[in-house]
Amino acid sequence: MRILFTTVTIISLALALIYGSLSASRKSRQARLLAWTSFCCAALMALYLCYITVDSIRLKEVFYSLQFAAIDWTMFSMFALIRESVEKPLTRTSIAILAIIFLIDSAIFISNPINGFAFDFAPHPVYDMFLVTSPKLFCFVHYALRFSVCAFMVYYVTHRVFTISKFYRGRYNIAFILFLAILVCNIYFLIEPNKRPDVTSFMITAGVVVLYYSIFYFSPNGLIRKVQLYVNDNISDATIIYDYKGDVLRINKKAKSLLEDNVWENVDNLCSYLGFPEGEGKYKKKIKGGQYEILYGPVKDEKENHIATFFIFYDVTKMEEQIEREHKIAITDPLTGAYNRKGFFEAANDFLYRNESQAGFALVISGICGFKAINASYGTKVGDKVLRFIEHCYHDYHHSYPMIYGRTSEGKFSALVPFDYVDELSSDLTSIDVPIDKDVDIHVDMAHGFVVLDDIAKPLDHYYERALLALAECKKNSVMGALEYSYEMEEQVKRRQLLVAEMHNALREGQFYIELQPQIELMTRKVTGAEALARWQHPKLGRISPAEFVPIFEENGFVVNLDVYIWELAAKTARELSDKGIYSGPVSINVSQIDIMGMDIAATLERIVTEVDIDPSRIHVEITESACAQKRDTLIRTMDLLRQKGFVLEIDDFGSGYSSLNALMKLPFDVIKLDMAFMKESNIDGKNGIIISSIVDMIHALQAQVIVEGVETEANVENTVRLGGDIVQGYYFSRPLSIDSFVEYVKSHRH
């Protein structure tokens, strides 16, 4: 018997320590209480082990008494734990009162071997590992306390069983049975304490283990099943589960409302209805007007045996509609409602795919001539009306023959049409009158470039670029309303692509350089200035005209990089010529609208003159009048800042825009450059001459100089003198010169 009790005690001790350690690793208040209870129980079992293993009667008395003290604190911890579990935690006052009571009780039992207040001991006549006890008054007080605590625990658990949902009663039923058993056990061994071994300590240890399970691992399976069924029936996704034979195991309400009975009654019918192949996957199908994403596949056990098949129907109708709306916004021009560039390309590619067997399609790009001028003269609202009117015209054609069209850029419309209708489309839309108000029309001219799609397997971009080139050529020739892309333009496309590919390398290798065109003072006929002009000497292509590469660079933005490079060359050249004593006059540089919008010109030029160590007044900044058309406030701020830093400002091409006099009033300037076309012979007599002379007089009155460029004949010189010009520039005096030629020219015109 000693071996049996020793073994059971050691196992109980180990369990108490294990569960105490596991509880201590958790962070909750319940876990801390359970850890303390488990360690108290472990102490109880350790004392019990010592009690049954020692042979000394005196030591047995000590360990037996200590067990009662350990039972006190184990019961106290279990009572606090039960109160916590039933959500009625002890207050601090209650804890203090109970602790004092149990402390007094423990002290009496600990001192019992000395004063004998609780027990008298004698050796057991049969089992030598136990003692025979004779209870005294304090022993009965202890049992009364122990029974009271057990009774209260039974009461609290019983009350909880009747007040909580049936799904959670399992947890408290276990505790109720446990504490009832402990109570009965205590009564049983109190009645006949010396006839059988007291196993109350083992019951308490078992109680701790059961409490650990009920607190941390109790799972209300009935509740879980009920909630799962509720969730399954109320989720928006239809679900069906079949067994391995294909019969229905579970189908929720959504699935029943979505599918007919004969469809879902077995897995074969459902797969046939959905058109699914064997195996798992994710598919989309339209069912009863809604779009569904269906996930299905087999469920297998650990041995790869097929045990079930599941189907989940995700309703993606709203999501698909939202995606469709967002896609429509992304491919639609908000002003006209037609396709934008992205939408046109998508629709055109789809159109070609659907009509792959047919031939004879052409891509037409139609551009509004002078659209920027329309916006500048009449306002953007009128420009918007023009665009909407043209879209309506395309919409009417759309009903007449198969075509795809869209507004693919600011003033351009693109259309994919049968080739036979290109002439009709272009002739009808070459010259149109757009109503912009009641009884008020505006005349709009359009140019059309088109290309025949000889191979629809090629990407649409391939043809789009060529149609754009044809449109550009058509705009140059005002007589032609439409122009077809020709193979002669292919070289231009390749050359354009080559220039773009080579531009960065050309800048790094110094292929760009400047030429200087002299500016002559009329009174002295001396060189009083020079304009720096960009040139490109390509190692393979040779000399490339600025008329060819500058528009390309303006379009792709590279002109900003080139201009800064030219400005640096101009400043360095002016400094070198001055250091050599050859020329100390100003050098004019050109600034475009792209430069103004794309960088801080004032800071850039200030850096250049600082690095070169040249006076800013020797750098004349030419700004074309056309740069004044947009974002004038930005331009004025830039010009004011340049002037403050000492640069001289020139307004180039004066008279070529729509608001010359307005420019004189608004813009700061030091020099005005008039184009000779503005001062041609037919304009210097009569009313025109009076106006031009007045403009020149106004410029002089504003303390500014007048430079006339484009002077090519003696008559041009005479007219310039007659109208009061100060400085002339043009081929009559000199074409743009290389640096060396400019040096010789200056030397020859010193006197």
Question: Which features would summarize this protein structure in a list?
Answer:
751 residues; alpha/beta; Rhopdopsin 7-helix transmembrane proteins; Beta-Lactamase; Alpha-Beta Plaits; eight-stranded mixed beta barrel; six-stranded mixed β-sheet; 28 helices; 20% strand; elongated
Description of the structure:
The structure is a single chain. With 751 residues, the protein is an alpha/beta fold. The protein is built from 28 helices and 22 strands. It has an eight-stranded mixed β-barrel, surrounded by four helices. Strands 8, 9, 10, 11, 12 and 13 form a six-stranded mixed β-sheet that branches. The mean pLDDT is 84. The longest helix is centred in the first third of the chain and has 29 residues. The radius of gyration is 50 Å and the shape is elongated. It has four domains: 217 residues, Up-down Bundle (Rhopdopsin 7-helix transmembrane proteins); 87 residues, PAS domain (Beta-Lactamase), CATH 3.30.450.20; 155 residues, 2-Layer Sandwich (Alpha-Beta Plaits); 242 residues, TIM Barrel (Alpha-Beta Barrel), CATH 3.20.20.450.
